[in-house]
Fold Neutral ceramidase.
Amino acid sequence: NYLLGVGRADCTGPVAEIPLMGYANPDQVGGGLLTRLYSRAFIVAEVDDSRRVVFVSADIGMVSQRLRLEVLKKLKSKYGELYRQDNVILSGTHTHSGPGGYFQYTLFWFTSKGLIRPSLNAIVNGIVKSIDIAHQNMKRGRLFINRGTVENSQINRSPFSYLENPASEQSRYSSNTDKEMVMLKMVDGNGQDLGLISWFAVHPVSMNNTNRLVNSDNVGYASYLFEQEKNKGMLPGEGSFVAAFASSNLGDVSPNTKGPFCVNTGESCNNPQSTCPIGGATMCMAMGPGNDMFDSTRIIGQNIYLKARELYEEASQEVTGPLRSAHQWVNMSDVSVELNATHTVKTCKPALGHSFAAGTIDGVGAFNFTQGSVEGDPFWDEIRDQLLGQPSNETKACHKPKPILFSTGEMTWPHPWHPDIVDVQIAVIGSLAIVAVPGEFTTMSGRRLREAVKREFDYHGTPRMDVVIAGLCNVYTHYITTYEEYQVQRYEAASTIYGPHSLSAYVQLYRGLARAIATNTVQDLPRGPEPPVFNIRNVTLVPPLTADRVPANKTFGDVLQEVRQQYRVREVAEVTFVGANPRNSAENATEHNFLLVERYASTSDSWHVVQNDASWDTRFYWTKGLHGRSNVTIEWHIPHGTEPGVYRIRYFGHYKKKLSNSHAVSIPFEGTSSVFEITAL
């Protein structure tokens, strides 16, 4: 028996003009909303409340160090020593369709246009609020664990790297991806459902890099389906049941199951360089199972949800036992690893290889770089040397065979480009060990890490532990491949920033944490060097918010393009309004709703909300015009099962009005479509 608490809070942030975080494509800037982003928090405490563990999964690309440090600072001021570095795990789902700009290291500023306070604040506040809600709702309850196989939902996107691993190791596994889902079910003392955490390795990149709508991708859709099912009669984002679909060792795992094809010719480009005969690497893209990215997101999300639902209903293995947690900060650019009694190797200062710029079959890079380059390119190297300085011989030698594109560990202007100080952390809930990793471990890297941690627990008298990897936790350090995968330098290897022995170093470190937990010597672990906090106020290339304006003879919220009078199920109702910049709303309130779909009830002569902007069936598009003008288009993709009747769509915004040179206010407004009828098929 434990004390359990679950909580969910909005962490969407600004949905316009902020670059989306994930594909590193500066042109992929937010232009609206498909679904809201949420932070989902789970607190487990021992019944005498002596120990606690907090697990948070947030619908964001990854947790950044700045984000973690700010969250922990807020928790400390609210709760004292209750929630700390060691017992709070913050994990990102890795959606590639959430706002960026919440990083303090310079490299991430290029693709997300700097450090964007409104974006960072929305995530910090959302995470803290979700923990607050969980904290306030603690009650006696029980935990159950279950595991099962998810089919038809992933492929390995670097199979040629995977094949470099020892044949004897490969032969122990039936697949080149981890198909297993691990699910933790939470119920209260009366057996009432509280929530669940699912860990499953897949990239949330069903939405590709042409998408401009903020959303939580395939794993977010799985959360949506589970929460809609359990919170009957509630709108999306409401209700007490919380379902988190958290990331795991997804480094080389894509949901785009049709595999890579040349966009221009239609032939396969499943080759070691992922290139096409005509157009090179930029033409090689993987496709999902659906007929477009929205459909693929739905299919993959539904697969994941259906397996989780089955595991949830059938879960019978109870999790019992004490709670433990351990955390260290480590200087990852200087770890000595004992490979065996005679051989010691070292990690390197961070650096990115040439193939980092190639991107992947899920989202290709901007300039025709190819994956699998173990040679540099004199043209790009010369540009790099002139602009950024060339890498030192020491760094070059340490990273071999990686040809270095950016020697980020040697770049410090205006602040360091990459972290040196990295979090390693394990939290134990009875027989479940959650290994919180600071990046994207590939399939085989994750298997080696899980096995090493499990062996360490076994050896020190804690057998039969269930070990799960929670991905994209605490600080972002890109990818971690195996030593063998590193040698062929595809994207994941080029992005293994601490060099060829990164995985060995992490295995050594996490074994140390597991040993300390198993032998009850956590208090003797050195804390390690504290990470820096850079004094950055608001460095950003995001355009400043200016006064919103309207066309002649119009006002905010006026309809420019009306709905039709009649629709059938599966058609799209669409309306366009005179709009204003949605960033005004984000900076006004976290709980802001941009739209509602309402149905008329003749019996009570009133309107009832049937959908909001967190719904997967609604899409909110913002189009910027000239001189402060803008339009908003709202689509409702009328789902199967919608009751016939009379409906309308409402839009809610804020416009910025200048009162003087130094003072502006945001003024709320709304607009409403004409009524329309939905008829039975």
Notes: DSSP finds 14 helices and 38 strands in the chain. The chain has a mean pLDDT of 95. The longest helix spans residues 293-314. The radius of gyration is 25 Å.
